[in-house]
Amino acid sequence: MDLTDADEGFQASTNPAMKYYGQAKAHYQFYMDKITPHVKERWIGLGVMIAVFVLRIVMSQGWYVVCYALGIYLLSQFLAFLTPKFDMTLQQDEDNKELEAGERASEFRPFIRRLPEFKFWNNAFKATSGSLIATLFSFTDIPVYWPILLAYFILLFILTMRRQIQHMIKYKYIPLDIGKKKYTAHK
């Protein structure tokens, strides 16, 4: 340990803001570790939180830009969740080279997401929480004609999902567990 490491540790322990930040971060990580295995409960909680946010937007008839920004962010996170981590075009080129050389790739290649499920949920939770907090301040309520934002979001959603579905069909992968067989251990 050199002198700068000891000096930084000393400053962090004497600075009350840094000490509080470190404690808050440790508490946050503790609770994130506890709720990680509860997948259904996490997503139900996020759904309730988004429903409360939408109810807040509808009842107050404001904060449409905040709602639009949240929608765009959640859409980008969802696309990262559906997208494979590795480029399928490179994998297909490797498979074609192996077939041309007379070797058949028989190894199982699992679907690995660009954005794992827990990070997707965590990012969505943080963004929804931030959006709910933003609706508490009047300066974030920017006047805008909301039907245009809604139409643009729907168009953006349709175009991006169409492209994603075409990619899934072209490279023959299913990113969701819907319809997949589940195997159980026999006793």
UniProtKB/TrEMBL annotation:
Gene Ontology biological-process entries: protein retention in ER lumen; retrograde vesicle-mediated transport, Golgi to endoplasmic reticulum
Record-linked Pfam families: Rer1 (PF03248)
Transmembrane annotation, as ranges: 42-58, 65-83, 144-161
Main localisation: membrane
GO cellular component labels: endoplasmic reticulum; Golgi membrane
Membrane protein topology class: Multi-pass membrane protein
Localization, UniProt: Membrane
InterPro entries xref list: Rer1
Claim: Transmembrane is one of the keywords in the record: yes
Keyword annotations of the record: Membrane, Receptor, Transmembrane, Transmembrane helix
PANTHER family documented for this protein: PROTEIN RER1
Function: Involved in the retrieval of endoplasmic reticulum membrane proteins from the early Golgi compartment.
Family to which this protein belongs: Belongs to the RER1 family.
The name this protein goes by in its record: Protein RER1
Biological source species: Maudiozyma humilis (Sour dough yeast)
